[in-house]
Design brief:
The protein is of the alpha/beta class. It has helices at residues 26-39, 53-61, 86-92, 107-114, 118-134, 146-152, 154-166, 183-195, 214-224, 245-254, 258-261, 268-271, 274-285, 306-314, 341-350, 361-374, 383-394, 453-461, 469-472, 516-534; strands at residues 4-5, 7-10, 43-47, 68-74, 98-104, 138-144, 171-176, 203-207, 228-231, 262-263, 402-414, 420-432, 435-442, 476-484, 493-500, 506-513. It contains 20 helices and 16 strands. Strand 2, helix 1 and strand 3 (43-47) form a beta-alpha-beta unit.
Length: 541
Amino acid sequence: MTKERLSLYDTTLRDGQQTQGVQFSTAEKLKIAAALDSLGVDYIEGGWPGANPTDSAFFEEVPKTGATLTAFGMTKRAGRSAANDEVLAAVLNAGTPAVCLVGKTHDFHVTTALGITLEENIANIAASVSHLVGQGRKALFDAEHFFDGYKANAPYALDCLRAALEAGARWIVLCDTNGGTLPQEIGQIVRDVIENGVPGDRLGIHTHNDTETAVAGSLAAVMAGARQIQGTLNGLGERCGNANLTALIPTLLLKAPYKDMFEIGVTDEALAGLTRTSRMLDDILNRVPQKQVAYVGASAFAHKAGLHASAILKDPTTYEHIDPALVGNRRVVPMSNQAGQSNLRKRLGEMGLEVDKSNPALARILDRVKEQESEGYSYDTAQASFELLARDELGLLPEFFEVKRYRVTVERRKNKYNQMVSLSEAVVVVKVDGEKKLSVSESMDEAGNDRGPVNALSKALAKDLGRYQEAIDDMRLVDFKVRITQGGTEAVTRVIIDSEDRQGRRWATVGVSANIVDASFEALLDAVRWKLVRDGETGAA
């Protein structure tokens, strides 16, 4: 059976930048473009040249890519020719081999938003696309609000598509701009469009995720005949985001009937780097990756229930729909109060701790986990703290140093500019190799901003640990989460800290206390101790 080729069009650099709180620098856009090119997408939409300095600079600096680099813009304005429209000229001046123009296809938007006649809008679409083709560019037409427009006035929406098609557009992209069209509607309307003379191999689909069905809508369009899919990495985009390529790509490559009917430009080798690419984008955005996302999430192949974990040991297919390694992810069997001994031994084995099933320490570890979690600890998310607990019960946890005391002060005062500012200071006393060491640190950063008491504690703890100092110098705190596990006057605080080192290792530790600073310090201590264990450091003399 001959497979049909599907084209992947990435809009992360434009639609992604419309995500609330996201603003890419030119350097970041170049890095993302290189990752997309390595992944194997067919088109990379770089942005709207002339709309902002960052997008314009990107097109000046971007190197040649295997993917077709595309500039984005809009159809010409009424009352002027395509050749004399400065907005259209800026898009062409980017020099990209392809240009995507957005135009109205919903009669309501034409008369209300643009304030022109329906005929003028069709003329603008045709003239703009014809001008691109005349300049030797591959033209794409994004039919904005198409599905709403089709439901309101199908003949007019189709006339807009035909105008672009007859003017020479390579791709006509049907956009569910408001994100409210459900998959079955998308499939039926795509079939109608093809029956009305727009070939499927010239059709693309662009969905938004406002009903949490953007991926399903894209797949429905493909099964109905569309042969280009537009989307973003990690589903970035305005409002609820766009169709998520990190879900679409593995589905197309690994799931029937798509894998049997279609081929895409992403190789199996590139697919194995998908998780890494997804997390690279989150690193650029300085945000914690969502754990529950399909395929690439840290919890996508996590098995917490004892029944599930036991079955996974016998055959992973019992509770996994694919091998996580195919997308560069990994299986996680976290520890929790639902764990059984088979789950526990599996988890210990992944840590390099082979423990005989008759070892009485196994029961002690399980009892201690259950007792600790009843007090508010959570080890399914703090695997490094669990490893330390297990090593302690197994007699395999070295005593690196002893914390004799610590103190944190927070001061609120006016500075020399008569502004109220905060300053935190921490003092930590540790005993290493029989010698007491006192360290003091403030929480002020290089810009003169207070980073809080936990920051001061972290800096003080890591300031002087004697012969262990070199091992922890590359540690950094990358995330800090606080949860109140009980209410009222007996509230208990759980703190989860994520740490990272230069080797790219990332680990989570937990602390629990009625005092948030004390809980934070416990998690910080575990983070340091885990690093020393994993670096093979020996205990204090």
